[in-house]
Amino acid sequence: MRLILLGPPNAGKGTQAQSLINTYQIPQISTGDIFRANIKQETPLGKKAKNYLDQGLLVPDELVVDIVTDRLQKDDCQNGFLLDGFPRTVVQAEALEQFLKEHQQNLDQVLNIQVRTEVLVERAVGRRVCQQCGATFHIKFKPPTKDNVCDVCGGQVIQRKDDQRETAEKRIKVYEQETSPLIDYYEKRDLLVTIDGEQSIDKVTADILNALKDA
Ligand code: ADP
Ligand code: AMP
Question: Which end of the chain is more exposed for a tag (fewer CB within 10 A), N or C?
Answer without folding.
Answer: C
